[in-house]
Every structure is written in C-alpha cells, then in structure tokens.
Amino acid sequence: MTLTTRVTIAGRKIVLTPDLLLGDGREAMVYRHPADPGLAVKVLATPDRSYRRKLEVILHNPLRSPQVAWPLKRVLSADGKRVVGCTMPLAARKWPIACALSNSAQTRWIHADYPWRLTVAINLTAAVEIIHKHDCVVGDISESNCLVGKDGTIVWIDADSYQITRAGCTYRCELGSPEYTSAELSGVAFATVDRTPHSDAFGLPCLIFQLLVGPGHHPFAARYLGKATGLTRLERIAQGVWAYSGTHRDYAPLDAAPLDILHPRLQALMARCFIDGHRDPTVRPLPSEWLAALAEVKQDTDFVTRIAPGLEAAAHARHSAAIRQTLQTHIHTPRPGSPFTRANPFRANAFTCPSYANTRQTAAKSHRKSLRVAALVATVLAVAGAGWMLFPRVEGAVYFKKRGDRSLPTPVLYQELSDPGNISPRFRSIFTDSNSFAATHETQEKTP
To answer: What is the gyration radius of the CA atoms in the chain, in angstroms?
Structure first.
C-alpha cells in the first residue's frame, strides 16, 4: 500500500496524502480527513469479506460514547466498488497511553503523579465496561490501542476490530497483543476462538498495574534468582508464574515495583486475577468490580495524596540503592592499558569496552587539549619576547640613544653620559668610540 491513497467517502472522491498520515498500524493506515478535521480515515491493507460484513453490523449498532472511537461511515475504494475501511472520530490532543507508562523522563510527556494515574485507570475501566454492555469484547487490549489526554480522559481506538455479537452471530476479533493475552488464549489463533469479557479481564488489570505500580512495569516482569535459564515473560504468563504470589522461589518482584504500592483493596483483586484466574478464568474480576474498587481508593484521600506517593518514593530509593550496591560490588580498578574504562557507577553499564567511535572521540579530545596547552605556551613566550623588545635593559638603551633626539623619552635611570665611569665596562668602549666619532663629525662640519 502506498502512502498516497485515493478513496471514496459518501460519494465524494478523497485523496489521502502522506502529510495527512496519523499512524501506520499492523493492518491499516490511519489518515486525517482532508475536509473534516474532526474525523480520521482508516484504510485497511487487505480488507476481506468477513471485515465488510462485520463493519456493516458495527455501523448499524453504533456505540455513542466519547471514550470509544466508534466507526461512523464506510470508506470505499477509488472506484467506489469495494469497502476498504471506515471513518471514525479523531481523538485530538491525545497520545498513546504508553507515554504515561514510561519511567523515562525523556519519554514521559507529563507529570504523571498518582492521582492523575488513578483517574486514568478509572476512565479505562469505565470505558471497557461500556464496551462490554454493548455486547462487544475489546480483544486486542494493549498500551497502543488506548489514547490519553493531559486531563486524564481516554479514548479506545480500533473499534472496528472489536468482537461484536448480534442476532446470535459473533464477529470475532482477529488481533491480540501477547503480553496482554490471558493464558487460555496463549498460542491460539484469535480468528478461531470466541472471546468473553473474562478475556478482557486479564488485559485490563495489566494496564491498571502498569499505571499504579511502577509505573510502566508489567505485572509479570520479574527478577530471576535461579541458576538455570529462566522463563520469558510470555512463558510466565502462559504458566501462571506471578512473582508476587510468593509461591515461585526462583522469581522475585522488581525492586521498583513492590505490590504494597497498591491499595489493599486492589491487591486482593490482582491476586484473584493472576493467581485464581489462571486456574479458572471466570473468577477474574470484571470491570464493574475494578471500577467499584478504584472509586473506593479515590475516596481514600490520605492514601492517594500521601501514602501512595510516599511508598513510590521509598521504592524508587530502594531501587536506586540496590543498583548502586550491585555496581559497587562489581566495580574494580582496570589495569593500565586495559580497554575497559571506569564509567559513572550510577549508570546501568558501569564498565564498558569503548567502541572505535568512542576511542576516536577520546583521542580527539586529548588532541584538542594538547593544542590548547601549546597555544597557551606560545602566547606566554610571545608576550615575554615582546616585553624584552619593548623594555630593554638600561645599559643596552644607552647604545641606541641618539644624541639630541628629544622625540624619544629619556629613561630616569640614565646617568651622565659624559662620565664613562657610570657605564659598565661592557659598553664603555662602544660609548667612547661613539663619542669620538660624533666629535670628529662635528669638527668636520664646522671646518670651511
């Protein structure tokens, strides 16, 4: 698919140029509508017959909620014969929620404090509950399918991929993100299975966990304490190895993400979801339970404004101290001539072998320093030489003094030149010869 696309919307020919491109997803491209700034145009790469039937059902059963970008109209091909996508409301001034989940100061675009993140979690849960009441399942829950604004409002996108059930017929969601997919669907082709709200009841707590613990740490992120090769994150999800359960000795929670940051009400729901829910998916808390618990936490102003931020600060301090202790344990002084250089002990890589580019850069810095030292020495020598020429010694100045030339100032240290005894023996002969030459020259000028 080229970046410039020609489509037909409501009988009107539209040209979608690269400057209107909003995003390039796994299966489609999203453009800004050239005539209506409040709309987005989604164009699929390979729309099939099942998508066209599903889109018709979605358009005939609209979900009117500002928290869900529900499809509005069909998008046809340039000749107007095939359905290639749909139009949907444009979520203005909103960004992927991954921006708020990041721990990096460079990528976090706002000051995501605990009250703000709690508000986002409540809005996420309320929107998923609305979708479930509309006989739909999100299916592909991930940090990229939800947009969030600086005011904490959210919008779920890609609604045309939701699983929807109408008149006893289920139109499945064929997409999914592995890190937000429950164990019973791990390794299963999504197009061959009907999902239930209990499937979303796994992905939603993952986002809530990332918002309120860390933030940004996935609930199944862990430290491996064993000696053999540990399980990957996806393998831990499939096997139900949750480090916070305390039953898996080879895995420990991350230092920066202790479970005590969560309110006790939320801790109990997390245990039901990731421990009991692994054995029986139907016992996972649904969005209505999460919404009630989050509202209860929000009412606890002391926890939201004082306890939770304090616990986060303490966890961050412990995490930083653990990093420093680990680095100091492995720090050693490299031998002379070793290619390993000691770096900042507070960085992740305390010792690194410099690459060729780093070596070139270090050599260039050393060369520039040598040039600066050489320039300084040359300047000092030049100034000293100029001082020697401009301010000669008194004895030397006597030799170059022209008799009767009043344009040159007479130094205060000049002695009576008529007395050769005042002149050092080194210049006495020169001075005597000069006086004799001058006397002879005057005599010749007076002679007619």
So the answer is: 41
